Every structure is written in structure tokens, then in C-alpha cells.
Q: What sequence folds into this?
């Protein structure tokens, strides 16, 4: 009788074993991809180039893709009059030699200026004059698109982002 019980138990174990799965379990891969997506969504806004300022709003800004390049010379003027070359704070009188060094190996002597809409005009004028002294040929003034109360872009005549020759 003992043998009959063993046979039944052994046969029962063999029949209860699940069959091997031939498909791939993608759940761990999806979990990893979602974590990576969240990391990139958090880090991407932090990669903004230069100092953040509340730029002047214009009706018809001209898009300047050259300002988004990694090697673009970008100067920012904050509301309190601080001047930044990229992310580094620089005194306006020290700006000319640093910009001259940044542009020394380049054929195009182009720089981009973004100023806070409440920055003092005197500081902006001083920075523009220092950029001229540094040998900047083209100066791009960066602005944002003017929007109405509903968040739609306002179109019409007006100043925008401009690329103008630096006055001599």
C-alpha cells in the first residue's frame, strides 16, 4: 500500500509542474524605461543655457536657432543689473576681454543678449558698448512672444528678436 501512495504522489507532482514559458517577460524592461523617462523629464528643464531672465515680450520675434547652439556666446542681464556670460557672473567692464577670448577662434563674431524686461537701460547700453569693443559684428537681441489673456500668440507690427550689426 505504501507503494501505491508513492506512485500517486510522484505522478501528482509530475502533472502539477507548470509548462515552460516561451515568451519574454517585458515588464521589467517597461519599468526601467519609465524610470528613465521620468529622470529625463526632471533633468531636461535644468539644462537651460545661461541665466534665466524674464525677457521682453514682442509681437513678432524672429526665431534665432544660432542662440541655441552649445558654443553660442550668450549674455544675460538680470533685473538687478547683474551681467552673466553663460552661467558665470561678470562685471560689465570685464565683459569685453572675456567675449573677445570666446570669439577669437570663430569666423562669425556673433553674440546674443537677453535682458530682463525690468533691467535698467543704462546697464543694457553699457553691455552693448562692451560687446562692440570686444569685436562683436552681429548682436542678437532675444525676446519672447507676446501673448494675450488666453495664452495665444499676439501677431502684429512690433519689434522682435533682431540680429543687427553692432554700431561702430
A:
Amino acid at each position: 500500500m505504501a507503494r501505491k501512495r508513492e506512485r500517486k504522489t510522484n505522478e501528482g507532482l509530475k502533472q502539477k509542474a507548470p509548462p515552460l514559458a516561451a515568451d519574454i517577460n517585458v515588464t521589467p524592461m517597461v519599468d526601467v524605461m519609465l524610470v528613465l523617462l521620468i529622470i529625463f523629464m526632471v533633468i531636461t528643464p535644468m539644462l537651460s543655457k545661461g541665466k534665466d531672465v524674464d525677457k521682453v515680450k514682442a509681437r513678432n520675434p524672429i526665431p534665432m536657432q544660432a542662440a541655441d547652439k552649445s558654443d553660442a556666446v550668450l549674455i544675460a542681464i538680470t533685473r538687478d543689473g547683474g551681467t552673466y556670460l553663460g552661467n558665470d557672473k561678470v562685471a560689465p567692464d570685464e565683459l569685453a576681454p572675456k567675449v573677445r577670448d570666446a570669439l577669437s577662434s570663430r569666423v562669425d563674431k556673433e553674440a546674443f543678449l537677453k535682458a530682463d524686461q525690468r533691467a535698467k537701460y543704462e546697464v543694457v547700453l553699457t553691455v552693448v558698448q562692451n560687446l562692440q569693443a570686444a569685436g562683436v559684428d552681429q548682436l542678437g537681441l532675444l525676446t519672447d512672444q507676446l501673448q494675450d489673456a488666453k495664452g495665444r500668440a499676439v501677431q502684429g507690427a512690433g519689434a522682435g528678436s533682431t540680429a543687427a550689426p553692432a554700431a561702430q
About this structure: The chain has a mean pLDDT of 78. The CA atoms of residues 32 and 38 lie 10 Å apart. The chain has two domains: 2-47, 57-165.
